[in-house]
Structures are given as C-alpha cells and as structure tokens.
Amino acid sequence: MTTLQNTPTTTAAPALQRYDAFLASIPASSTTGWRWRKEGMIRTTNIAGRCYVSAAAIQSFLTRAEAGEFAKEHKTPAVQQTRAA
Fold first, then answer.
1. How far from 24 is each of 20, 58, 79, 83, CA to CA, in Å?
2. 82 pLDDT tier (thresholds 50, 70, 90)
3. Which residues pair with residue 52 across a beta bridge?
4. Separation CA 36–CA 3 (nearest Å)
5. Residue 74 pLDDT
6. pLDDT band at 83, cuts 50/70/90?
7. Domain segments of the chain as ranges
8. What is the per-residue pLDDT across 16-73, written as a single tens digit (0 to 9) for each?
C-alpha cells in the first residue's frame, strides 16, 4: 500500500497586518490613512470588508517616504490687508 506524504509548500502567503494597526504604529490618524489610500501612496487589500496591508507594501511606502517622494512645498497663506474704515 502506498502512502502519501505531506510535503510543505514553498509558496507562503505574504504577511498581512490590519491597516488600522499599521496606522497606530506610525502614528497617523485614520483620515490620513484614508487619504494615503485614495492618492495611491500605499496599497491595501480588502478582505471581507476590512483593510489589510502587506509587509511588502509597508516597506515600499516607508522607503518612498524616506526618499522624499511624497514631499510637497508648504503653502503659507498670504496675509490679507485690512481696510481702514
């Protein structure tokens, strides 16, 4: 009689982390996280209505942020002159 041996597969699923837990570890607000997802700065995965982020996506986001890819010039509002009455 032949028996089948269970051999472990070499393809492992990527480690996923809850997106809100990732934001709490930075720390960043949920609004900021929503904006990052909307602008495509970080890729998330929706599983059963919850957002998850892979370790590769986190590393890519942090590398790009450290490189200054998301940097913008700060816009200071102009001072308005008031009229003398």
1. 6, 13, 36, 47
2. confident
3. 18, 45
4. 52
5. 87
6. confident
7. 16-66
8. 999 999 999 998 999 999 999 999 999 999 999 999 999 999 999 999 999 999 888 8
Number of H helices, E strands in the chain: 3, 3
In which element (H, E) is residue 45 found?
Answer: strand 45-47
Q: With beta carbons less than 8 A apart as the criterion, state whether 68 and 28 touch.
A: no
Three-state secondary-structure class, residue 43: coil
Check if the beta carbon of residue 58 is closer than 8 Å to that of residue 17.
yes
| Spatial distance between the Cα atoms of 3 and 78, rounded to a whole number of angstroms | 79
User: Is residue 17 a contact partner of residue 23, using CB atoms and an 8 Å limit?
Assistant: no
Q: What is the Cα–Cα distance from 33 to 1, expressed in whole angstroms?
A: 57
